[in-house]
Amino acid sequence: MKKTSDIQALIIGGGVTGTGIARDLALRGISALVIEMGNINDGASGRNHGLLHSGARYVGSDPDSAAECARESQILKKIAPHCIENTGGLYVAIKGDDESYVADFPNLCKKAGIFCQTLSVRQVLELEPGLSKDAIAAFKVKDASVDPFHLSLENMNQAIEHGAIYYSNCKAIGFSMERTILGKKSIKKVKVQNNLTGNCFNITPQVVINATGAWAGMVTELAGIRLDMIYSKGSLLVTHNRLTTHVINRLRPASDGDILVPGRTVSIFGTTSLRLDNLDAIQPDFNEIDFLVNQGAQLVPGLETTRYIRAYAGVRPLVSSRDEPTGDDRSVSRGFYLFDHSSDDVENLVTITGGKVTTYRLMAEKTADLAAKKLKMSSECTTAQTPLMSKAPSKLIEAGMSVKLWARESDPGDSMMCECEMIPKSHFKELIVWLKQNRETADLNSLRIHSRLGKGACQGTFCSLRVTGFMYDEAYIKGSQGLDNIRFLLTERFKGQKSVLWGSQLAQAELNEAMFCSFFGLDMADPDMVDPDMVDLDMADLNKKG
Amino acid sequence: MENKEDIHTDLVIIGTGMAGMAAAVFAANRGLSGVVVGGAGAFEYASGLLDLWGLTSPETGLCKDPWQGIARIPKYFPSHPFLKIAESDIQAAFDELTQGLTQSGLVYGGLPRENSAIMTAFGTAKPTYRFPLTMANNVTALAEKKPLLLLDFQGLREFRAKFVQQVLKSTWEEINIGAVDFPQMSRRSELFTPLMAQAMEAEQVQDKLLAAIKPLIRDEHFLGMPAILGINRSENILNRLEDGLGIKIFEIPTSPISVPGIRLKETFKKMLANTSVTQMPDQRVLLASHSPGQGFVLETGTPSSTHTTRIQAKTCILATGRFLAKGLAGDRNGVTETVFNLPVAQPMSRENWHGTTYFDPRGHAINLAGLSTDENFRPLGRGNTPVHGNLYAAGSILAGQDWMRNRSGSGISIASAFQAMGHITSNQSKTSA
Question: Which one of A157, B4, B246, B260 is separated from B85 by 20 to 30 angstroms, measured CA to CA?
């Protein structure tokens, strides 16, 4: 493994773009280090629909973007088929929707070069019986469903296999600048802090790539460069079951609550567009949830009655245009922004932000081209041809995959740790070995990130305690770490459940609280909060046996 | 074809959890004729520990003296059900119930007026008021911290000895682990505590386990194991193993499905057999109504069968529990009561149901939602008067309490059932007088 002192490119941000750039550079033979202040895809990369756009959504507003989506989604379907489910997409208008938009839609698609096939109402209801009977028009497009976690993990793992390094929980907190001979400024040293330990260390890269999404302005600030970002929050809901086979889009100008994306065993519905002032708390509001359920039920009535297991919100990283203020954030380009900060007098800093999961590979390519130029390396991008397939056990994050592997291996001594997602002990064992090899912490939370642990209906009730028991058995954890692990996992899982706790999920939450608070006492397991007398009761008066 | 049956009785108890079964036992003890009807699963989620009160607020910490904690209730929970019951009645309710359980072969113990600390499968200490005798040495061992041997079963996911050992090791010098295969189940990759407990009823299995444990014991004072020592004769099994091994043995309660909970369920069944109270388990109330002439009329059945039963009763105790037991239902617009659609005291909007931090020791506002009642646990309607003169509510469905955070589930169930029963019997004697 390379030392961090030899690193050519430092990538800040472990989302789909940052990990995509790491893969791109690593395949070119350029050494890269990714630092991520949390974990892979903690930002917008992990908080979106998981929709691989056909481009049809942008045919009205941004035909260039639409064509870009169409090209890139074709490439990803080829290089990463295991991260993608080729569901196909439907655009459906319902009674009351703008009929002139419906009429224009096929022409707009044609102009942008996007495939679009007209369906009759009868045909579309046959394809998707869950659709509203109020459907009035429908078109078939080439949308697909992509697992952004799988994509980022595979990017990073393949990069690591080609010499890149990844540090989670590490944040860039300062740049030391120097003047070049030509009088320009350059980042000499990057001060990095580990958020878990608080320890700081320095990295001396030749190029710094800022791939921090909505946080981009905060990183350029470290170099004294102002970059005005617009924080546009979008909230999404996750259903317990999969509701449709296709991606369903509401056929109307891009608006709130109009896309339902199936992702293996679940469906994801969204989204909204709310301006935020800061990035301190990115959570769905309750009225957004109610709005989404009501909107969604117009398109797919089952969205009114289905069980929701989670809700989450992401922030679209939009760059404010230099001249005029904008009304609706949707009119701000969804294309990406690549800044060579030479123009801001800092030679070796590059910022990439904006864009979407569908075009991440292209964004990474353009960024890597610029970085390579700065490093004076002549190199060619191979990411569009190289299969995105690493040797890491990241297949465990695919819902339903684990059970297939388990059935194939079927060791009689192997026991099931998670019944919602059917993950046996052996898979966690394999994952922990891999995590350790890659110098990642092997705790409950990182197992969650790299598998389906805690992601099923029970959201961690039974798997958390079983996996913790297993980790004690294997001596991966000691002392009271297991209690901290469980507490952390359930606390994190709760954040995404709070706004959808009604119906069956509310009952599930009650079972959780009864178990972990009333019975196991984890709400008081902090030793500072427990009465020290409690466990030293005088037992002299205890009722005698018999 | 539909199949109907008619039952006329004095009292119908809806709910077969702790509150419903306590009410049924109290009714049987008082010679009231009645029916207890409800689902089947409640006790599988019960720990088997009878909590009274374990925590008032995070500042005061877990309580050694539950009565001191209860005395602090007015400050923290102004409409708590315990404020409607005399302390002596709470104690009398516990005594009546535990005596009944003991007489039916499930012995419960505890300090006269104090909580005891029980070691859980997480190695944490849980305060409880009354515990099954198979856990008596659990309390002693946790207090004395003398050398302990923890029994570990290969494939039992709900209990890992090392988990307990590691959590306790900073305060407990010697905890050893002895791993065994459970007799006749060693080929299984997953063990389930209810199946193990069932198997333990056979002496042959006990002997095999005994032989497997014997060589593992060195100089330990105690032997701790997950709660699997049989369903119906747990004390006998414990004694038999203790005699054979010459060591003090105890059970450690585990997460659901819980064997000590199933023991309670089975013992209640025994206690009510051949009494004035008829049990109708595995039934859901499909329709419920009340009229001045007929009293309460319930139609009960199972979702999978067309066979239904019509129950007509003068008096009704609603002990249907909260969201998990389906006594309350929460949808996006609010919380409703599922049998009679009674008014539910609840936070103003769904946004206020939960706080931001899951493990916030103050709990969540939704936990306090439920039925508001008068002093005799009759649910209140509009105008703050009882909805019906003969309708009572008992257990966790009651408003103003947070049994999960206060560690008071059984306490609320047993005491409110006791109080309601007191009022029912005094009313009946008035009517008959």
Answer: B260
Which tokens hold the place of B117? Answer: 């600390």
| Residue A446 within a domain | yes
The residue of A518, A530, A536 whose CB has the most chain B CBs within 10 angstroms, and thus the best one to mutate to test that interface, is A518
For chain B, say whether A494 makes contact (Cβ under 8 Å).
yes
**Predicted pLDDT at A542:** 31
Residue B345 gets which letter from DSSP? B
Per-residue pLDDT, A533: 41
Residue ranges of A 401-440 with Cβ closer than 8 A to chain B: 412-417
Answer whether residue A61 is part of any domain.
Answer: no
CA-to-CA dists, residue A471 to A396, A424, B159, angstroms: 18, 13, 13
Question: Which residues, 6+ apart, have CB-to-CB distance to A385 below 8 Å?
Answer: A79
Q: Which residues of B293-307 are buried (b: 16+ CB within 10 A; e: fewer)?
A: eebbebebbeeeeee
Tally C-beta pairs within 8 A across A and B: 206
ipTM over 0.85 threshold: yes
Residue that has been written with the tokens 């997950």 in this structure: B226
Domain ranges of chain B: 3-103+262-426, 121-253
Q: How confident is the model at residue A334 (pLDDT cuts 50, 70, 90)?
A: low
Average the pLDDT over B271-284 and give the result.
Answer: 94
3-state class (DSSP) for residue A277: coil
pLDDT digit string, tens, across residues A136-153 = 999 999 999 999 999 999
Cβ-in-10-Å burial (0-12, 13-18, 19+) of B326 comes to: middle
Q: Are B405 and A518 within 8 A, CB to CB?
A: yes
A438 shares its domain with A519:
yes
B121-253: CATH number:
3.40.50.1860
DSSP secondary structure string for all residues of B161-186: HHHHHHHHTTT-S-EEEEEEPPTT-T
What does B121-132 look like in DSSP terms, one character per residue?
TTS-EEEESBEE
B423 min Cα distance to partner chain A (Å):
30
How buried is residue B349: exposed, middle or buried, by Cβ count under 10 Å (0-12/13-18/19+)? exposed
- B357 CB within 8 Å of a chain A CB: yes
Confidence of residue B1 (pLDDT cuts 50, 70, 90): very low
- The mean of the pLDDT values for chain A is 88
Fold held by B3-103+262-426: FAD/NAD(P)-binding domain (3.50.50)
Alpha-carbon separation of residue B139 from B67, B172, B247, B252 (angstroms): 20, 14, 15, 10
Q: Is the pLDDT of residue A101 over 50?
A: yes
Tens digit of each residue's pLDDT (9 = 90 or more) over B76-128 = 999 999 999 999 999 999 999 999 999 999 999 999 999 999 999 999 999 99
Q: Does the beta carbon of B2 lie under 8 angstroms from any beta carbon of chain A?
A: no
Q: Give yes or no for a contact between B318 and B14, defined as CB atoms under 8 angstroms apart.
A: yes
Phi–psi pair at B280, nearest 5 degrees:
-125, 75
State the DSSP code for A519.
I
Same-domain status, A402 and A478: yes
- Supply the range of the domain harboring residue A494: 394-529
Task: Nearest chain A residue to B333 by CA: give it.
Answer: A502
Which of helix, strand or coil describes residue B254?
Answer: coil
How many domains are contained in chain A? 3
Nearest partner of A299 among A124, A51, A87, A111, judged by Cα: A124
Q: Which of A416, A538, A539 sits opposite B190 (nearest CB)?
A: A416
Contacting residues of B for A496, CB less than 8 Å apart: none
* Chain-chain contact of A519 with B350 (C-beta, under 8 angstroms): no
Contact between residue A30 and residue A375 where contact means Cβ atoms under 8 Å apart: yes
What distance in Å separates the CA atoms of residue B382 and residue A152, rounded to the nearest whole number?
57
Same domain for A481 and A518, yes or no, is yes
Cα–Cα distance for residue pair B272/A509, rounded to 1 Å = 33
A510:B322 CB<8 A: yes
